[in-house]
Please model this.
Amino acid sequence: MSKESKKILGKKRLGEILKSLDFIDDEKLENILQEHKGSKMKLGEMLSSMGYVDKEVVLSIVGKQIGTPYIKVSEYGDIPQGVLNYIPKNIAAKHMLIPFEIENNVIKVAMAEPQEEEIRTSISVLTDMEVEAYITSEEEIIDAINSNYPA
Model:
């Protein structure tokens, strides 16, 4: 993606981006924004739960806005136990993240909230590695934790 595209995505709000990509129209956007005002739900979650936009599309756009790639952990395959050993299951579950690869002293971690600098710093201290964050859904993380960590 070009620097110009990143600037545009970073400045536009999610609803405006989805509207410009023809996922929603002005009326749907206005309805969603009105409903969103009284909700604790994130706008992207609300859009996907109402069936307007697939969750993966929302996460991909949000990832581009914050400069973090989207990954679908379930398509990545089995995570090596050696990678999982760096981050205990309880920490992964508490912070909604899952490590999935280590390369050149960089641990790649799928996170529900990759913009949380404090969590990334804690993981870096815990693992003594640089952290490369990816965005994914909480459901993907929960499934990956349940299917990869020992019970």
